[in-house]
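Q&A log
Question type: sequence-to-structure
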Amino acid sequence: MAVQDISTYIYKDIFSLSEIKFEKACVFKKPNQVDAYSIYWIKEGKGTYNIDFKSYSFTDNVLFFLSPGQVFQVDSEKIKAAYKLTFIRDFYCIQTHDKEVACNGVLFNNVYETPFVKPCESDTKKLDFILESLIDEFKRNETAQYDMLQSYLKQFIIHSVRVKKEHHIIKNDEETKLFKDFSLLVNQNFKTLHSVTDYANRLGVSPKSITKHFQKIGTQTPSDFIKNRIILEAKRQLIYTDDSVKEIAYDIGFNDSAYFTRFFKKATLKSPLQFKKDYKK
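Response status: OK
Response body:
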């Protein structure tokens, strides 16, 4: 990796902004597990990124959003200019601010849809202005800097949500609300709750009602949604930890590792050990 220029601004190890430029293609062979909320803005360039075992290609001016725990790998890229924002929950909690900003499940913790957001020219100017304000605030180191930095980050996220909603169908009807509530609940409890009935009870609706709502918006079945979230976590742990299959099975709620192996193989057509071996080649 040949870096032309890199500028990094850090606030107390809980929020950072980096501006990066590359001279040529940069390829990382090994996957990297994200440990903080991250926003990448590729201003100029193209590439292919592998996020949670799915490949995404892009060309010029795209934003993408990663949440802690996701597995991210650069298959190929050629970047002229890019920004990276990282923050932890102690600096900005997306769950706490979700009623105001509505980014949880739309930008972050959205593990089932394309993570890219592509701003138009006017949106780009607005986002540029916010980033310039952020950089200026990092340099000032004055009173109430935490509040100012958080405010600018919030503005950046709010505008990204607006861009996402403008270019993607994100309805506010009851079906979509239930889907979001269900998906967030699964993301929080998939290690302990494995049945649609468990989640239906938490949401105060019947399993049949959830299934009908999923059919209306044309997505996978609720049971498949739960299964896929469990498989995704299993893949993450197989690749990014040295835990045994038995330890991973127990961590995601399977008391019988043999049953977990059958469950995993039915979904992926590979045993856990074979998947790990093939992915790390």
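Response note: Residues 174-279 form a domain with the Arc Repressor Mutant, subunit A fold (CATH 1.10.10.60).
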